[in-house]
Amino acid sequence: MGAEAGYVALGIIIGWLTVTTITGIIATIKRHKVLMAVDTWFVAGRALGLLVVWLSLGANIYSAYTFLGLPGAAASEGIRVFAVNLYGMVGYLIGLLIIPFLWSKAKERGWLTVADAFEDLYDSKVVGAFAAVTGALWSIPYIQLQIQGAGYILEEASYGTVDPLTASIVAFVLIAVFTVIGGLLSVALINVLQGAIMLIAVWLVGVLAPLVAFGGLGNVFKVLEHYAASKPPESAFSLTLKPDDFAWMATLLVAAPLAFWLWPNRVQNVFAARDVKTAKRSAVLVGIYQVSQIPAILVGLTGLALFFKGVISIPLYKKPYSDHAFMVTTKALLPPWVVGLVGAGALAASISTAAAILHVSGALFARNMYQRLLKPRASGRELLLAARAFTAILALASLVFALLAPGVLVYLLLVGYAGIVQFFPALVLGVYGKGLVTKHGALAGMAGGMLTVAYIQVILRRSPLGVYEGFWGLLTNIALLLIVSLVTGRRSRRLNSSVLKNNAKAL
Amino acid sequence: MSKKLFYAIILVLAYIPLLGLPFSNRVEPEILGMPLLWFYCLAWFLEIFALMVVAYYVDKKHVWG
Question: Are A474 and A448 in contact (CB under 8 A)?
Answer without folding.
Answer: no
